[in-house]
Amino acid sequence: MFRRKIINYAESIVVGGVILYLSLLRTAYFRPPSFEGADKLAHMLMYACLGAALAGNMLRDKQPLRLALLVAIAVGIAYGGGIELLQEYCFPPRTGEWLDWLADAVGAILGSGIIWLTHRK
Fold first, then answer.
1. Amino acid 52: pLDDT
2. How many domains does the chain have?
3. Could you tell me which of 76, 75, 93, 94 has the C-alpha nearest to residue 84?
4. What's the predicted TM-score (pTM) here?
């Protein structure tokens, strides 16, 4: 049963792991594009992937659409907030930012919204 859940949620686990890895890297090793707002766009895209992957995985696991969307958004917001706190307090020179967390939340909502658009009846 547990193994089947891991397989059903593999995309979400991989996307979450990639987000964690990229979020905790030292900035010397990872340089995002340098236009204005590039890091907020990166946050939105990463969390849109997480929201879409989690909602899609839950639908494949026969969960109701509304529950899948709510869980994907809540997990995205909580995960983003947790990572921002880790950056601020545990991984210097990384810093947590409220606007990054807002971009994470918007991304989770957008990713879930894509799933809603493609699966609504």
1. 98
2. 1
3. 94
4. 0.90
